[in-house]
């Protein structure tokens, strides 16, 4: 299993990545139970086909890490956020070095809830993305327009600015290895999913912006997820869009069986 995109001949095969964003849900005991159950429903070939990630709250990271290492469960560990400094007087914050030490492979940066509720700007997201990379982890950088922006026909303008701002100064090689999540704000937790072809079009647009910043190779290998009310019922149509390389799943990732069905979207 590899978390890096593989090159096959001329074309780049991007391994799909499905990540569960648990948000502020589940204590560490519930977290262990959820990972055990999800793993029970997954087969080796599912892990071969799809990279599976869970992003529990900070308080559950150590428990989940111990479980997946001890039982050799091929699920990658991710955190939902972090500070951009290594250490210091930042009461209540968690540093990327701490997450790297816990063998987190991924850290979500700039989720729309962080942007809307905790004032994270593109500049903050950019700092976080850079330190996450500097600590050997992969950022899942979230972007997405609000409903009024979509209705005003400003989706590309807004998303393009977020991509450029959040990824500024990241090298070409690094850009090709990160994950971007396109999450239209109006689709998150609402049960209202973007039409697969609309999501595919925005993801294609994002890939184009990555290409402008980092060149064709980076654009070809960066993995771009869709997020926003993904369920076991709609994931296959979303993943059928060739630009879309995976899903960032909130609500449905809290149910082990549903999450496993989402990972098994090819069945
Ligand atoms: P949702 O959340 O699947 O519950 O809409 C997605 C997200 O916020 O990442």
Question: What attributes does this structure have?
Answer:
267 residues; alpha/beta; TIM Barrel; 8-stranded parallel beta barrel; two-stranded antiparallel sheet; 13 helices; 45% helix; disordered N terminus; binds 2-phosphoglycolic acid
| Radius of gyration, taken over Cα atoms and rounded to an integer in Å | 17 Å
Task: Describe the sheet with the most strands.
Answer: 8 strands, parallel, barrel
The unreliable regions are 1-10
Tally of strands: 10
Distance between the termini: 20 Å
Structural class: alpha/beta
Report on the structure:
The chain has about 270 residues and is of the alpha/beta class. The protein has a single domain (about 15-265), classed as Aldolase class I (TIM Barrel), CATH 3.20.20. The chain is about 45% helix and about 15% strand. The chain is built from 13 helices and ten strands. An eight-stranded parallel beta barrel has the order 3-4-5-6-7-8-9-10, surrounded by five helices. Strand 5 (about 75-80), helix 4 (about 95-100) and strand 6 form a beta-alpha-beta unit. The longest helix is centred in the C-terminal third of the chain and has 19 residues, at about 195-215. It is globular. The structure holds 2-phosphoglycolic acid (PGA).
């Amino acid at each position: 299993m590899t978390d890096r995109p593989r090159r096959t001949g001329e074309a780049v095969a991007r391994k799909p990545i499905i990540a569960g964003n648990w948000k502020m849900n589940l204590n560490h005991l519930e977290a262990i139970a959820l990972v055990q159950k999800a793993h029970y429903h997954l087969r080796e070939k599912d892990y071969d086909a799809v990279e599976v990630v869970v992003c529990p709250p900070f308080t559950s990271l150590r428990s989940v890490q111990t479980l997946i290492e001890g039982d050799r469960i091929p699920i990658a560990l991710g955190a939902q956020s972090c500070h951009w400094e290594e250490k210091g007087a930042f009461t209540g914050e968690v540093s990327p070095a701490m997450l790297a030490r816990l063998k987190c492979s991924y850290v979500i940066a700039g989720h729309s809830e962080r942007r809307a509720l905790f004032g994270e700007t593109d500049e903050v997201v950019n700092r976080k993305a850079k330190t996450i990379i500097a600590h050997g982890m992969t950022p899942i950088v979230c972007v997405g327009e609000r409903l009024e922006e979509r209705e005003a026909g400003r989706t590309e303008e807004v998303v393009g600015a977020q991509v450029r701002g959040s990824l500024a100064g990241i090298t070409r090689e690094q850009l090709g290895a990160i994950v971007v999540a396109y999450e239209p704000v109006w689709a998150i937790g609402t049960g209202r999913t973007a039409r697969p072809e609309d999501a595919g079009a925005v993801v294609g647009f994002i890939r184009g912006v990555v290409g402008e910043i980092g060149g064709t190779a980076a654009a070809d290998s960066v993995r771009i997820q869709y997020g926003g009310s993904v369920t076991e019922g709609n994931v296959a149509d979303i993943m059928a869009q060739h630009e879309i390389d995976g899903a960032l799943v909130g609500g449905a990732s809290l149910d082990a069986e549903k999450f496993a069905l989402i990972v098994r979207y090819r069945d």
